[in-house]
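Could you join me in thinking about how sequence relates to backbone shape in a protein? We need material for that, and I hope you will provide a protein of your own picking. Label the sequence line and the structure token line clearly, so we can match residues to local backbone shapes. Would you write everything just below, so we can both look at the same thing?
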Amino acid sequence: MQKGVLNLEEAKMNKKSILENIEITRRYVTDFVNNLNELSRLKSKPLKFGKVLHVVSFIIIYLYIFKPLFMGSLILALIVYYFGYKILNSTLQKRKIAKNAEKIKKLEEQQEILENEINSLTLIPSKYLYIGALNKFYDYLSVGRADDLKEAMNIYEQEIRHEEQVNEIKNMQALQTEALRKADTANTLAWMNLFKR
């Protein structure tokens, strides 16, 4: 009897240490992702035009700079706009990176430190080192659906497979619905043609 109580206590301590490890890992992964997003923001191209803004910008350049005199001016304006946009965006990006070089270097160093901390401290396999999976593992363990990390990973994988199967079924149902709609349309047209005769 004493041995069973000891195993239960060990399991509770093991579960508690796994939950603590997941919590620490979540903090590190969150910091890692935030740093990565900040690095992406600092290194990104400053001009991000949507399709509409490109069209409007091109029309403005074409009408006010090239003054449509001949058909070749349209092609010339398009070439000038395309390369002008690319060169301007590239130049602004280089300036942005140069301006933020110190901050970028600091963030890259922090990324390396965080990555080393995560790799040395976590019990979680790298495949699951993202917030969604970590939150699920924490939930499974804290509510008692899993008693250890292996069970939590297995439940998580089962849920992913289940979601994929549900999505596959939904896609098949959508295809069937579309096929039925087309068949109904064809049937209706056939009846209409029959009455026209």
Observations:
- The longest helix spans residues 149-196.
- DSSP finds six helices and no strands in the chain.
- Residues 1-6 have pLDDT under 50 and may be disordered.
- The two ends are 91 Å apart (CA to CA).
